[in-house]
Design a protein that fits this description.
Its EC number is 2.7.13.3. This is histidine kinase. By secondary structure, the chain is an alpha+beta fold. Helix content is 48%, strand content 20%. Strand 4 and strand 5 form a beta hairpin. The structure holds adenosine-5'-diphosphate. The site of adenosine-5'-diphosphate has 22 residues, from helix 4 and helix 6.
Length: 266
């Protein structure tokens, strides 16, 4: 449809108000339409590379009379896995961006959840020569959240910490109760690594979809470039947010803020 409608406003009365509202809505529709067009273009671009690799490998196999080698099948399988991870991520992201993600809000003990998640990733961290450690106060830190979605946020951040920290490094997970910020009380979880870090000028775009600090470096690390975008959207859906502090060649700290309801809110 044509969204380039803008009705000139002459009158200052009710009629003028209606026209201004109409113009406002048109603008917002156009912005949504632009965003949608960009997403489709980005997705097409991201799907292109793995699909080209698969296509090329299959064509080569067809042309040579030999049967497919195990290595080639492994490469093909990797690319297919990559494609399906990308599609899964896009699904969550599109639901979140449309505000259609259904969240199952329940009381959740962050400390217990993180103990479990850190346990799950410990082996992968150790295989990469990294030490991982959780520190929290005594007692539970309770928030109202969707346990599965929150776990996804932490897993995305921890996977990045593991990916972008060279062997010999260290990852610390710190849980804090009752951090006051912007007139609200939050429970905070920080994931701190001693990795490659992020240049300051890259920080503002870090949560954009498909954004990677160094395209070549990141591609072979196997991510989809959507992990942080999804983490950001999931936190927003929880009324929370994520902050990042980083220094090149020294490390990064991602802090997740989740609102805690004070007793008088209930
Ligand atoms: P990816 O799938 O590429 O990891 P993300 O959205 O999770 O995508 O992260 C976007 C980019 O931010 C990464 O490609 C990487 O360049 C940078 N990044 C994320 N986390 C870290 C970290 N802990 N240390 C250094 N760089 C990071």
């Amino acid at each position: 449809g044509n969204l380039d409608v803008n009705v000139p406003v002459q009158s200052k009365d009710e009629y003028g108000k209606v026209i201004r509202t109409f113009n406002d809505m048109t603008l917002r529709l156009r912005e949504a339409e632009d965003a949608r067009r960009h997403l489709v273009a980005d997705v097409a671009h991201e799907l292109r590379t793995p699909l080209s690799i698969i296509q090329l490998k299959l064509e080569n196999a067809q042309q040579s009379s030999q049967t497919a080698s195990p290595e080639m099948l492994l490469r093909l399988h990797d690319e297919v896995i990559r494609l399906s991870l990308l599609v899964d991520d896009l699904h969550v992201l599109s639901l979140a961006e449309a505000g259609r993600l259904s969240l199952d809000f329940k009381p959740l003990d962050l400390t217990a959840k993180l103990e479990q998640i850190v346990d799950d990733v410990k082996m992968e961290a150790e295989e990469n020569g990294l030490e991982i450690q959780l520190s929290s106060g005594t007692g539970p830190v309770t928030v109202i959240a969707d346990a599965r979605r929150i776990a996804q946020v932490f897993i995305n951040l921890l996977t990045n910490a593991i990916r972008y920290t060279p062997p010999g490094g260290r990852i610390s997970v710190v849980v804090e109760d009752k951090v006051a910020e912007r007139d609200q009380t939050y429970a905070c979880v920080s994931i701190i690594d001693t990795g490659v870090g992020i240049p300051e000028e890259e920080l503002p775009r870090l949560f954009d979809r498909f954004y990677r600090v160094e395209k070549a470096r990141s591609r072979h690390t196997g991510g989809t470039g959507l992990g942080l975008t999804i983490a950001h959207q999931l936190m927003k859906a929880h009324g929370g947010f994520i902050r990042v502090a980083s220094r090149l060649d020294q490390g990064s700290a991602f802090t997740v803020y989740l609102p805690v309801q004070s007793l008088d809110d209930k």
